[in-house]
Structures are given as structure tokens and as C-alpha cells.
Amino acid sequence: MVRVDLGEVEYLEAAEAMRGWVKERQAGAVPDRLFLLTHPPVVTYGRHTAAADLPQDGSMPVIEVDRGGHATYHGPGQLVGYLIMNIRERGPGDVVRWLESALIEALADLGIAAIRRDTPPGADSLVGVWTPEHHKLVSIGMRIREGVTSHGFAINVDSDLDVYDRFVACRLDGVTMTSLRRVAESTGRPAPTMAEVRDVVANRLGAR
């Protein structure tokens, strides 16, 4: 997999580019790629998201997207990773479980304990990466079309956590969102830098 580092990219600009990245991969013109970037403040949501879950104060753009999942925040201090992979070539396997496991290993490399959670039957999805106390660190939402994945994950590195008071994240009312900085500081460790997080994530996902 090829690692592609980008800076801050407007969400709609990235979404348009991602459609092109997917077509390139479907055509076999490029290898699997991991795009690492950040976005200006925005809330994105899937088509099954209730209007009541979205911000009502007009404080930031709200954009419907074509991935799975519900309302998710992107903004400064958050690392977004878009995975454009041909899963037919990778072979059978649960790509979301693979992604969760790789991100948990990446956070362990930074000295941060994290877990995945199984979703009880009939409950709202607990896909993502969590602290052992069940505070959410990473949101995951992916789409697979013609064997190629798109979208991916968002890691709160040093995010503004107050923004989560303005909407219902991932349809999980009452969930506590946290960041790597907050977790690290609670254990007396230095907070990881964005560059360090990019490197460990890319390494664990096999992106060079």
C-alpha cells in the first residue's frame, strides 16, 4: 500500500478527489493507497441519520456523504485516513475488523491502550476504537463499491472535544468522545504529535 500525505483539505474537495481515486483503483491503474489528511470543521452524515442528531446552531457545514455510519465530526487536530483498497485482491476478511485491529496496534505503539467493542444485537453500531473506559477515540465509516473501499477513519489526536456537545456522534447519545492528548495527559505521558500518529498508523496499515 502506498502512503500519501496531504495537509488540510476542504471536505468537498477531498470527496471529489476520492471518487477519482476509487475509479483509478477499480481500473487497476494504481496500487492500494492510504491518504492521510485533515479537514476544516465539518459534520458529515450518512443517509440514515436522523435530523435531530445533527448540529442545529449553524456553527459549521453539515454534509451528507455516501459512506456507512452516522454523524461524524472532522476538524483541526484530527487525523483522517482514506483507504482506497481492492479487497478482492487482498482476499477474504472483515476489512473493518482489520482496520480496528491495526489502529489499536498503532495506538499501543504510542503507549495508549485501546480496544474494539462488539455491537450487541439490535443496538447502534460500536464500530471504532475505544479506551478501556469506553470513551471513543476513533470513528470508522467505509464504503465498498466494485470491490474497492473508500472513506476510512478519523482519529482525535488533539481535537476540540467541545464540538461533540452540538450533535449526536455516530447515533450514540451520551457517548464520551476523547482524544489522544486527553488520554495521554491523564496518564502523565506526553501527548503524541500529529506526525507521530501519522507514522505509526501508516506503519501498522502497511503503507509505505
- Taking the alpha carbons of the first and last residues, their distance comes to 6 Å
Low-confidence stretches are none
Helix content: 25-40%
Radius of gyration: 16 Å
Residue-averaged pLDDT, rounded? 94
Number of DSSP helices? 5
Structural class call reads alpha+beta
* Extended strand count: 9
Approximately how much beta-strand content do the residues carry? 15-25%
Write structural notes for this entry.
The protein is 25% helix and 25% strand. It has 208 residues and is an alpha+beta fold. The strands form two sheets. A six-stranded mixed beta sheet has the order 1-2-6-9-8-7, sandwiched between helices. It has a three-stranded mixed beta sheet with strand order 4-3-5, with no helix packed on it. Strand 7 and strand 8 (136-145) form a beta hairpin. The longest helix is centred in the N-terminal third of the chain and has 16 residues, at 11-26. The protein is globular and about 45 Å long. The mean pLDDT is 94.
Q: What's a concise summary of this model?
A:
A six-stranded mixed beta sheet has the order 1-2-6-9-8-7, with helices on both faces. Strands 4-3-5 form a three-stranded mixed beta sheet, with no helix packed on it.
Q: What are the key terms here?
A:
208 residues; 6-stranded mixed beta sheet; alpha+beta; single chain
Write the layout of secondary structure elements.
Blueprint: E1 2-8, H1 11-26, E2 33-38, E3 42-45, E4 62-64, E5 72-74, E6 78-84, H2 87-90, H3 95-109, E7 129-130, E8 136-145, E9 148-156, H4 180-186, H5 194-204
Parallel strand pairs: 1-2, 3-4
Antiparallel strand pairs: 2-6, 3-5, 6-9, 7-8, 8-9
Helix pairs in contact: 3-5
